[in-house]
Design brief:
The chain is mainly beta and about 300 residues long. The protein has a single domain, classed as Neuraminidase. The chain is about 0% helix and about 45% strand. The strands form 7 sheets. The protein has a 5-stranded antiparallel beta sheet. The chain binds magnesium ion (MG).
């Protein structure tokens, strides 16, 4: 295991509140390298391991907290992207190649949760979150079908890139947002009163969106949602919310910490483009960071939402 400081990393305090989130002597560690594009970290508390996706390499990786080792969890992975853990501790995965959201059961069987909307195939589900009522909310941009690098190139069957909700009992799929260019990362506020969703439309559209919107959750639907933060370096991809409501988002220069209203509080500098983050460890006070080729982590004086 490596506990030293990693070159090119550091902290940038914009608001004094960010200093309170840091631990004086804690540094960013590079835990592993060797991926092409890292995404979708998810923490499995009972097993003390982290799973994440290496999308172009068509595999999911597993970092073991007990000895720091990394192994391949699943290959091929259908070019998996975002992952999360549901209320029963099961893995929920967005798969570009299969153009679906799946759940891995306790016995290892894989169940398809969503692969179409009103008879048309999904584009390529990107990121996913589970609400406390068991509903599953996911984004469906087209990154997995616009080129062969992260899936199979294909003609979209849907009229755009939207956000969907899977009902807990029936499994029915409804569209909850349809005015995004490329909906990407998403996370609820700790009280689930709000859902934050990133739009990475800038990736394929000049002057396109590179922001996060904040929607009020109204039962099974969402309010229109206002833009609360524009990314100053690259785009916000995946992100997580801490127990106090701050947003910890990926960006091109590392991790941006935002207030619940989108104000930039500070940055964790990472020497690669960051795709996603998640809180892990027994106390959920360790932030795992998926940089392009590498997995990083840093202990913080904040905790993720359980
Ligand atoms: Mg993403």
């Amino acid at each position: 295991m490596y506990f030293g400081e990693t070159e090119g990393t550091g902290f940038e305090v914009v608001d004094p509140e960010f200093s309170q989130c840091l631990i004086g002597h804690a540094r960013v560690e590079r835990l592993w390298t060797g991926a092409r594009w890292s995404e979708g970290p998810a923490w499995f508390a009972a097993g003390r391991y982290l799973i994440w996706s290496d999308i172009p390499n068509n595999r999911m990786m597993r970092w073991d907290e007990t000895d720091g080792s990394v192994s391949i969890f699943r290959s091929p992975s259908n070019n998996s992207n975002g992952n999360t853990v549901d209320l029963q501790g099961r893995l929920v995965t967005c798969e570009h190649l299969a153009r679906r959201v799946s759940r891995t059961e306790h016995d290892g069987a894989v169940t398809v949760l969503a692969d179409q909307y009103q008879g048309n195939r999904l584009n390529s589900p990107n990121d996913v979150v589970v609400k406390s009522d068991g509903s599953i909310w996911f984004t469906d941009p087209s990154y997995g079908i616009i080129m062969d690098y992260e899936g199979d190139r294909a003609v979209p069957e849907l009229d755009g890139c939207h956000v969907y909700r899977i009902a807990p009992e029936s499994g029915d799929i409804t569209r909850v947002a349809s005015d995004y260019v490329k909906p990407n990362g998403l996370a609820f506020s700790p009280d689930e009163q709000y859902l934050y969703i990133a739009d990475t439309g800038m990736s394929h559209q000049e002057n396109g969106p590179a922001h996060i919107r904040k929607h009020t959750v109204e039962g099974d639907t969402l309010s229109e949602g206002a833009v609360i933060a524009d990314c100053d370096t690259g785009m916000f991809d995946g992100f997580r919310v801490d127990r106090d409501g701050r947003i910890w988002s990926s960006a091109a220069d590392g991790v941006h910490c935002l207030s619940s209203d989108g104000d930039l509080l500070g940055k964790i500098r990472i020497p690669e483009i960051v795709g996603n983050v998640c809180f892990g460890g027994p106390k959920l006070n360790r932030l795992f960071i998926c940089g392009t080729t590498s997995l990083y982590s840093v202990y913080l004086n904040v905790n993720g939402v359980r």
